[in-house]
Request: fold
Amino acid sequence: MAENRTLELAIAEAAEFEPGRYPGGLAVAFFRLMDVPQDKTPDRWAELRRALRNNPHLEDPDVQAFLSRPDLAARGYWWFDPERW
Reply:
């Protein structure tokens, strides 16, 4: 299923992000996630949240500013709000 693949790619992007890497790939993954139902595969969504929260490189304020979209987070797309990881 394409939705599972989209979620898997976002998890991999979050887990493998490292210093010096442009966060554009993760941002694209975030936008693609907007088409994936959040009520399906809750275990995979929890895995995404863990990957985002546990990668210390994503704590960089510049990276978080790049990924933050308060307007989209307010519409239920929590991954655009680093405070909700």
